[in-house]
Amino acid sequence: MRESLLTLRDVRAWYGPSQALHGASMEVCEGELVTLLGRNGAGKSTLLKTVMGMMNKCQGSIRFKGQELVGMAPHRIGRMGVAFCPDDRGIYASLSVRENLRLPPVVAEGGMSEEELYELFPNLAQRAASAGTHLSGGEQQMLAIARILRTGARLLLLDEPTEGLAPVIVDRIGALIGQLKGRGYTIVLVEQNVHFAAELADRHYLMESGQVTDMFDAATLLRDFDRITARIGV
Predict the structure, then answer these.
(1) Mean pLDDT, all residues of the chain
(2) pLDDT over 70 (residue 215)
(3) Domain assignments of the chain as residue spans, ordered by start
(4) What's the first-to-final CA gap in the chain, in angstroms?
(5) What was the pLDDT predicted at 71?
(6) What is the pLDDT of residues 43-97, one digit of tens each?
(7) pLDDT number for residue 234
(8) Is the pTM above the cut of 0.90?
(9) Nearest Cα to 60, choosing from 34, 109, 25, 112?
(10) What is the DSSP letter of 36?
(11) How far is the C-alpha of 127 from the C-alpha of 190, rounded, in Å?
(12) Where residue 2 falls among pLDDT bands split at 50, 70, 90?
């Protein structure tokens, strides 16, 4: 049995007066790749932001390596080894690819060097001097992922990494995430593309109306694919 790395219990979160999470609970074991599935607005991205301490108001318990994160500042959570890749990718237009890559601090030993990252992402090596937003959508996504791999973080929160990308780029992102899982990273993946998620994850959590309402393993998703995707609305 693998050790639990991240545990959420009865987590509630608000955007101003509007409550977005209504008692979400889940667990992620070390080395697992877990997906959050659900309709738009179900609270998937909000849950990742809550783990990172990015919500103004949060209640419940979020424990990483046994340490409570609720009430902790985002930069302290990041320095514990948690990295967040947002759905908007967060690429800085005024910085080159190389400068974007170097922007986050190294928080732990074991992060990939620039040379390793350029080997993993040859497109970025070719565009290292280009402005970040001159890249294609797929290249921007690769840069966003490469940037967090340099930090040494071992828990990766990936929010919709395939959104808006061409199928050939989706395949490349899938292969990359598979490689990261093989290297022992723990990954929580928010993904609308259920076919993409089904091929990668160990387990899946279903979110509805700000709660985690179901959990199933990869075999169950494949066996009951039509029923589960009907609940998700895809």
Answers:
(1) 93
(2) yes
(3) 32-55+72-232
(4) 33
(5) 95
(6) 999 999 999 999 989 999 999 999 999 999 999 999 999 999 999 999 998 999 9
(7) 59
(8) yes
(9) 25
(10) E
(11) 28
(12) confident
Backbone torsions φ then ψ of 152, nearest 5 degrees? 90, 0
CATH superfamily, with its number, for domain 32-55+72-232: P-loop containing nucleotide triphosphate hydrolases (3.40.50.300)
Cα(41)–Cα(19) distance, rounded to whole angstroms? 12
Closest residue by Cα to residue 174 from 201, 136, 149: 201
State both tokens at 100.
Answer: 């974007």
**DSSP run (H or E) holding 87:** none
The 8 Å CB, 24+ separation contacts for 26-31 are 26/205, 26/212, 26/215, 28/4, 28/155, 28/186, 28/188, 29/1, 29/2, 29/3, 29/4, 29/5, 29/186, 30/2, 30/3, 30/4, 30/5, 30/186, 31/2, 31/181, 31/184, 31/185, 31/186
